[in-house]
């Protein structure tokens, strides 16, 4: 109604009131306004249905599937992690194959229980900045494009981790990032198709009290 001139609204109210009176219907002011809103909305829809947003798009999971054809599950995965560490200024890099059994009682969502088994840890002694976290969430648009000195900072190669898991996570300083491209594990936490993951600043709250 905001885009309709006031005179038009008043004319419509009078028209509806006359129609109801002709049909012998007693309509109060609120019902009359509701009828007017419905008719104005219908007219507005008719005027705008000729144009809608459109364009080329591709599901994130499809894009990742195609990327993995160029980044198979081999030694290249470790090279990508080393490159990222080097770009971040790390002086140490360690890989740990963790076979410890993990609990499933204090998780962000019940769906994450399936991922509490064996895991591969890629550790380095650098600290992620806010810009680093933003870069890694932009698929294929990493910080390396801004500096010729960086050899692999969060570019396409990072996505080689999806050869091993559907739910990679990154822990640095007071922040942990969970990436959930299928949006099948963290939807209840707020993950969506538009933003398929969550980022927690766990020192700001007691996470265990919340989950």
* Radius of gyration over C-alpha positions, nearest whole angstrom: 27 Å
Gross geometry: elongated
Total number of helices: 6
Query: Mean of residue pLDDT?
Result: 79
In terms of DSSP E residues, the strand content is 5-15%
Low-confidence segments, given as residue ranges, are 1-7, 141-145, 147-153
* Secondary-structure element series: HHHHEEHEEEH
N→C terminal distance = 44 Å
**Biggest sheet character:** 3 strands, antiparallel
Q: Find the structural class using helix and strand composition.
A: alpha+beta
What percent of the residues sit in helical stretches (DSSP H or I)? Answer: 25-40%
Within the largest sheet, what's the order of strands? 3-4-5
Number of strands: 5
Features:
211 residues, alpha+beta, 3-stranded antiparallel sheet, two-stranded antiparallel sheet, 6 helices, 33% helix, elongated, disordered N terminus
Fold and architecture overview:
With 211 residues, the chain is of the alpha+beta class. 33% of the residues lie in helices and 12% in strands. It contains six helices and five strands. It has helices at 6-22, 29-48, 60-67, 75-87, 130-137, 207-210; strands at 93-98, 119-124, 169-172, 175-179, 197-201. The strands form two sheets. A three-stranded antiparallel beta sheet has the order 3-4-5, with no helix packed on it. Strands 1-2 form a two-stranded antiparallel sheet. Helix 1 (6-22) packs across helix 2 (29-48). The radius of gyration is 27 Å and the shape is elongated. The two termini are 44 Å apart.
